[in-house]
Design goal:
The protein has 473 residues and is mainly beta. It contains 2 helices and 35 strands. It has helices spanning 2-19, 318-337, and strands at 22-30, 32-34, 39-47, 53-58, 64-69, 74-75, 79-89, 96-106, 112-122, 135-140, 144-145, 153-159, 165-174, 178-185, 190-195, 207-217, 220-231, 237-245, 249-258, 264-271, 280-282, 287-291, 294-303, 308-316, 341-351, 357-367, 373-382, 386-389, 401-405, 409-419, 424-433, 440-443, 447-452, 455-460, 464-470. The N and C termini lie far apart (152 Å). The chain has 4 domains: 19-122, Immunoglobulin-like; 135-231, Immunoglobulins (Immunoglobulin-like, Sandwich), CATH 2.60.40; 240-318, no CATH class; 341-470, ntegrin, alpha v. Chain A, domain 4 (Immunoglobulin-like), CATH 2.60.40. It has a 6-stranded mixed beta sheet, with no helix packed on it. The chain has a 5-stranded mixed beta sheet with strand order 2-9-8-4-6, with no helix packed on it. Strands 11-17-16-13-14 form a 5-stranded mixed beta sheet, with no helix packed on it. The longest helix is centred in the last third of the chain and has 20 residues, at 318-337.
């Protein structure tokens, strides 16, 4: 028996939810009237069903008559329709503030919803009753406010008296902003007011503030309310790079911006290499680090709120290019200006046990150019401690002239008409030392004079330092 009773009660409770296939919202338009006037309302009917619905609006109160515009109240499936409803008093209606019960019937299902519509009817010649303005207020504002975006401020205001408030002043004052607006409140009505256009300075420092809203009517504060809020901190580092490159020199300008309301440190990195870093200069100090296997130049730059800084760095390879060009120029000049004729002198001393040494001397003269060299004259000198032996070696050229001097020794000269390109001649002679050579003996260099391009030039061979060698008996 108890289980059956509980089931019946549950069915009774859920029955309205099951059959609530439409909704009604009534908004007052003009509800402060005289006896010969009509109170007006806006009625919005929402049909939640999947088929059209026909509605009837009426009242059983004999003091009031209902009128609709338009008369057709068919609402299409899953849609909404609005009509204007008028309540006109009959001759039996009493003056004063009162509620009129109006029924909203779905003719297809028979379901009825009842709404009480408030109004005030005044009499001719009778002073209106003075009502003290009583207005309820609620503030909807987020605690965390982003200074880069408009402040979302919404007020919910409700008139608790039949007083028609035509000009309600709203004063909004806060730590970081203030604004003024106004609104009207019909008797016993409730409205939502969005305060728009409140913008903060994006550089506003983070911190808490207080928001206070005052409602003023006829110069008096009828209500006020306060809320706390907080300015959010934010920061975003942006970087912009411009560069100018010309002839192995790249100058880059880096602009960094802190788009935030708190201090931050910008970390700027530029990929580089060990060699490239040697040619970098910067207007700000930087570090040379390796990150994830990549060598980078790194700048750490503190930035205040909304601060912008600019610095430059340069990769200049001109000195390297200049050194390479100078080296190449040196090689070219060396090749162009070097002597086309080279000479090499060598000698070997052969000592005998009797105390007399023989010295064999060879002078190599070579044309290392691709040009023909003419008028070659080779001159060599033998110190006075030795004398030239008149011997002829196979393949060698005999001296053209030999001159002997007690002070300067013996002078030998060879005259060669030409040296073909890349041709080499060997000039050989043998001398005998008048004293035994002990240790080392030096021979002067040979001089080679030649003519090239119509100009006479000279080149010298190396000096000789003799090391004695003894023959076996």
């Amino acid at each position: 028996m108890q289980r059956w009773l509980v089931t019946v009660l549950l069915l009774i409770l859920i029955a309205p939810a099951v059959h609530a296939a439409y909704g009604v919202v009534v908004t007052p338009i003009d509800v402060d009237i005289l006896r010969n006037e009509s109170a007006t309302y806006e009625v919005s009917i929402s049909n939640f069903d999947a088929s059209p619905a026909d509605f009837q609006i009426f009242t059983i109160d004999p003091n009031w008559n209902v009128k609709l515009e338009p008369l057709n109240l068919v609402v299409m499936p899953e849609s909404q329709k609005s009509v204007k409803l008028s309540l006109r008093p009959s001759s039996t209606a009493n003056p004063g503030t009162q509620g009129v019960n109006v029924n909203f019937r779905n003719l297809d299902t028979g379901e009825v919803q009842r709404k009480t519509l408030l109004l005030t009817m005044r009499q001719y010649g009778v002073p209106d009753k003075e009502y003290a303005p009583t207005v309820a207020l609620d503030i909807l504002v987020p605690y965390d406010i982003d200074p880069r975006e408009p402040v979302p401020l919404r007020l919910q205001v409700r008139n608790r008296n039949p007083l028609n408030i035509t000009n309600l002043t709203i004063l909004v004052g806060a730590t970081h902003f203030e604004t003024t607006s106004s609104m009207t409140l019909a008797p016993l009505s409730e409205r939502t007011k969005d305060i728009t256009g409140i913008m903060l300075d994006p550089r506003t420092s983070p911190g808490e503030g207080e928001l206070r809203v005052q409602l003023i009517y006829n110069g008096e504060v009828v209500n006020q309310l306060a809320r706390n809020y907080r300015i959010k901190e934010y920061t975003e580092i942006r970087e912009q790079v411009t560069q100018d490159a010309f002839f192995f020199k790249t100058a880059k300008t880096i602009t960094i911006m802190n788009n935030g309301n708190i201090q931050n440190t910008a970390v700027v990195t530029v990929p580089t290499s060990l060699v490239k870093s040697l040619f970098v200069s910067s207007s700000l100090p930087y570090e040379n680090e390796v990150r994830d296997g990549q060598r980078v130049l790194l700048w750490r730059i503190p930035l205040g709120a909304e601060e912008t800084r600019e610095f430059g760095y340069t990769e200049n390879y001109r000195i390297l290019v200049l050194l390479v060009l100078l080296a190449l120029l040196g090689v070219v000049l060396y090749i162009m200006l070097r002597s086309p004729v080279v000479a090499l002198k060598e000698a070997v001393a052969i000592a005998h046990t009797e105390g007399v040494s023989d010295i064999k001397v060879r002078v190599f003269v070579k044309n290392r150019s691709a040009k023909l060299i003419q008028g070659i004259q080779v001159t060599d000198r033998v110190p006075s401690l030795a004398e030239v032996l008149k011997t002829q070696s196979p393949g060698s050229i005999a001296p053209t002239k030999i001159a002997v001097s007690d002070k300067q020794g013996t002078l030998l000269r060879w005259d060669l008409e030409v040296l073909e390109p890349f041709e080499e001649r060997i000039l050989t002679y043998q001398v005998k030392s008048k004293l035994k050579i002990i240790g080392r003996m030096k021979l002067p260099n040979a001089r080679i004079r030649y003519t090239v391009g119509g100009k006479e030039r000279a080149v010298y061979s190396n000096n000789i330092e003799l090391v004695e060698k003894f023959k076996d008996r």
